[in-house]
Amino acid sequence: MVLPVVWAGRSAPFVSLSGTITASINETDIVSGAKTIILTLFEDTWIASGSVFNAQRQAILNKLVSNLSEANGWDAELSNLPVTNVVRNSDVQVTITLSALVTYDITEAEVVSSGAPAAALVISSGDLAAGNFTITATSFATSIEWPEGGSIEWPGGGGDITWP
């Protein structure tokens, strides 16, 4: 029999969020992938590994919800994460490794909430909220300002560009 981890001073089950996703991240990190989301249970356990747990992996991914509704934001791109990226490391820990989400694109900071669905838990009869992580938008220059009067020598002898 596996007993849940007991956290001093807490009587109700809860889940904590950690992993490389909680560091300062931006949309380039999401496009590149490989960040981890670690969900650790206290005073509860994940359901048994194998087919029972595997049937809940999509529900675990679905608990990752954005505060925005951007066309290529988190909620839109979540369907591109395979359920096989949700791994039950132990009775109390699950790791989600992000694949490269190459079309992810946001215009402002996106806050993603996380949690654990009740159906994936042994003790809790309700979903557990784990906390949030923020993804900062990366801005790219849309124009270039040139100093007055100058030129650029084109590499490879392709000619020069001169402006007044």
Summarize the structure.
By secondary structure, the chain is of the alpha+beta class.
How would you explain this protein's 3D organization?
- With 164 residues, the protein is α+β, with helices and mostly antiparallel strands.
- It has a single domain, classed as Immunoglobulin-like.
- Helix content is 12%, strand content 29%.
- The chain is built from four helices and ten strands; from the N terminus they run ββαβααβαββββββ.
- The strands form three sheets. The chain has a four-stranded antiparallel sheet with strand order 1-3-6-5. It has a four-stranded mixed sheet with strand order 2-8-7-4.
- Strand 5 and strand 6 form a beta hairpin.
- The longest helix is centred in the first third of the chain and has 6 residues.
- The radius of gyration is 22 Å and the shape is elongated.
- The termini are far apart.
- 24% of the residues are buried.
- The mean pLDDT is 87.
Helix content: 10-25%
CATH class wording: Mainly Beta
Distance between the termini: 80 Å
Strand content: 25-35%
Give the class from helix and strand content and strand pairing: alpha+beta
Largest sheet descriptor: 4 strands, antiparallel
Number of strands: 10
What is the CATH architecture annotation? Answer: Sandwich
Number of discrete helical segments? 4
Kindly report the CATH topology. Immunoglobulin-like
Strand order, main sheet: write it out: 1-3-6-5
The parts where pLDDT drops under 50 for at least 5 residues are none
- Outline type: elongated
Q: Please compute the radius of gyration using only Cα atoms.
A: 22 Å
| Average pLDDT number | 87
